[in-house]
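Worked problem 6 (solution included).
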Amino acid sequence: MTSYSIHYTKLYEPAEFAAAIRRAAREIGERVGCDARYIGRVESGEIRCPNYAYERVFLHMFPGRTLTDLGFAPRSSVRGRRARAGGGTPDPGDPYDPHHPYDTHDNHEESDVLRRAFMTGGGATVAAASLGPLGLALDAAAAQRPVRRAGAGEAGALEDTVRRIRLLDDRHGADGLYRRAAAPLRAAYALLDAGATRQTTSDRLAAGAGELALSVGWLAHDSGRFADARSHYAEALATARTAGDAALEAHAFCNTAFLARDAGRPREAVRAAQAAQRVARSLGSDRLLALLALREAGGWAGLGDRAACARALARARGLHERGPSDADPEWMSFYGDAELEGLEAQCWSALGAWARAARHARRAAGLQDAHFTRNTALYCAELADDLARDGRPDEAAAAGRRVLGLLEEVQSSRVHTMLAGTARVLLPHRRAPGVAEFLDRHAALRRTG
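Solution. The predicted structure is:
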């Protein structure tokens, strides 16, 4: 196989994927004799570029992509080898001729993941496929079969799974990833329940399972499944307390505070954030304490307590200015100057200080690293909403259009919800510069979504 990768080999059987290709061909009036052998030839690299019929099918399955985007070699580079020099038609007698009769069996229902499994990156539509089996060892089957006592290899696979989810979430947002993460979470707790050969491995498994529960909880949280998120966060907190893991406990309380704020329970957000700070004081990370102070500030803002919110924000800034350290947890990779500004913007927005909120949101969007596409979209959506509510519809529409562009890569219910609110605020201002374009594009997105 060339530099591309086909993740269906870890998600689906070749026959299933071949059946999906045949169904896609029928949708556009093509006939391709695709079967498991053809899939194997593509996977092995034997078929470096498909014939024209397959090309039309693949481009139908993956709109907006080219063959090279899908990992195939350019047609010009393979002519004269497998294809005729004159035009890339199949070799005489090729059993994979586009008009070769195709099978009618294995017509399993095609899922969104399957339709996009050819690609390893490039947008929110392929994030779930890119997730693959989540750390190789933690696939769906692993959750069903008996588990032997775990060793360092299993602990490492679990830790890699957590990192992989976080990277995909940073890039694409949670929608589409959440369903894929359930089986690895079950497998992680099966490993934990089976025990380990060494205490150090057992500790790693507990921390890994807890962090995975938090990551899966965050995927639920960001995609609007608040009840699921609350359950996963509680599971992580119980794991932390059972294992005596203060770092995991602080993280669990941090996420719980954020969820409580978003779910309309601001007093619970304050209590959880304060509990997290008590646990985290022994961990030596000023950046962690800064984030937890911001979580507390969000709770106070939800309660309408401007003075308490301002005090927590000031404490957060003071801690943040002390800079990063080796004690900062790995999961805080998203946190930096941009996140500080973004969370402060949310606080002022909750307090109705739209102009002040917009200033911080603009800074957040400008400071954000390009890798964190989801957060960039979030900050721009915050900015658009604050500007709209501050009576600056043209600026709000410009920020909203930027979000619409980012939504080609990001799937986040939170961002979609914020943008919908902005659109409602801007409806009376359709004649302002750029507003009609934003509203029309947003309406089109909702229709196709």
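Discussion: Residues 1-12, 79-147 have pLDDT under 50 and may be disordered.
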